[in-house]
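request received
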Amino acid sequence: MPIGYYLVLSGLLFTIGAAGVFLRRNLITLLLSVEIMLNAVNLTFVAFGRQFGTVDGQIITFFVMTVAAAEAAVGLALVIALFRHRESLNPEAFTSLKW
Amino acid sequence: MGFDQLLFYVFAGVAVLGSLLVIGQKNPIYSVLAIIVSFFGLSGLYVLLEAPFVAVVQIIIYAGAIMVLFLFTVMLLNVPREDASEWDRAHPYYRPWALRAGAAMAVLMAVQLGWALSRTQGLGTGVADERPAVSSVAELGRVLFTDYMFAFEVTSILIIIAMVGAVVLARKREF
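response:
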């Protein structure tokens, strides 16, 4: 397969994730959209790594996955803490700095 | 059309459809299940790119661990859907023109991405044309624990900090 196919697919996935972040109003779906964007970037790394015949692309993918796991853990803990205060997952409910 | 090409289109379709379902659902549980389907599609693409270890890690870590964390949170909070009236009021599509800058930025970014891709040279080169694949786990581990040793250790510290932070943040006691 030509590299361009993988890049177009990756760009499509990244756009879907970005659109999710901008359009959805649910904190959990927002985090899922960020995961989609991270995966789109991973696909680019692996595709280029395959083309250049090196393992660096695959290794950076592991680091991205680790950071995604850390981000999901902290993000979901924040969501739980916020939900205790406001009983809502809408980001519009959390616009004040102090309550 | 070769078998590889057919598989590429199948996996790419699964990944894109799954991602579209994620942002198209109102119930977060369906969103999480759809993203798992999307991850299986991506995993198939990694196999096509001759990176089998990444494909397995994608399933075990992403679809296994991280998405279980998401599902657990969704079920813990027990909010099956966004409130419909809240959704309508808060949706950017129903906002005044000036407040829709975010959606405009998303479209702009997509256009830029397409423009950059359309002007890039050499996109027709096959991924498997020029170099042989490096897919052995032994080689992966050797590079990870020599060239990327520092990044690896820093990542382990990051994970510990994230774990402690998550426990502190989600704790019930009020400060």
